[in-house]
Amino acid sequence: MAQGDLSIGPAGWARPDWAGSVFVGSRQRRQHLLRNLSEYVNLAEIDSTFWEPLKPEIAKLYVKQVAERSDFLFTAVLGRRFTYDRDLGDDFVAAWKAGLMPVLKSGRLGALVMQFPWAFRFSGENRQFLIQLRRAFHEFPLAAEMRHDSWLRDEAVTTLVDYRIGMVNLDQPEYFRGTPPGALLTSGVAVVRLHGRRNPEAYREFEGRPDGGYFYSLDELLEWKPRIERLAANAARTLVVTANGARGRSLVNALQLKEVLCAGRLEAPEPLLAGYPAELAAFRARRPVQTLLPAHAA
Description:
alpha/beta, disordered C terminus, 16% strand
């Protein structure tokens, strides 16, 4: 697998609990955190756009902060106003487009993820709405996260293929008619999102909010290795997002996936190495850590 075909990275990098616990220094601004993050992974998810549009000037800053990494990509989550509230008002569409356009024009937007609730099941009405949403954001590389397994029907998959919408292969808790893990490719871009396997109610209920605190074991990550390799062998681009962002856990799991998939240098931020010595045993700090000499040796 060519490293350039595979992008792995976390969501949650702008969370307040990352400052200090992931990178040294608790007062770093989020764009500085992003620059530091790009030293270790080649993908980051912009998840704030689920709640509100990104300001174009902020999007430009994000692009600037990763300028030294020519292979660095972003995914972004489309606003719930569209996927949950089904509001395709022209003003709202224009606002979300304007905020994401600097990332798109820079060539760094790997996918715009349409995260639908479990209640969005495959039906004629919902199929038509999906097509409307695709047309509203026709400039963007779209991927659909469908949490209800009815979207695995042949007719549903054909719709995604016909309208060049990627199917997000997701890892989520098991619950009634929840979409199981898979390796389905419906466009040139393969997308994988790992949410965690705890608290199924947060995924099944319409207003549920996953806490992002799940931590994947190595064995659980290894389950995804053959799926990701299969996708990468057939897709033009493969994007893997660890969405369990609380306290930097998504970055730890993303780094572990890099190791499992042999996808780049095994380097990690010093605070993570100290906090997860067993999980990151094969990793080293990007900058050498000075060893303190015993007092009698000074």
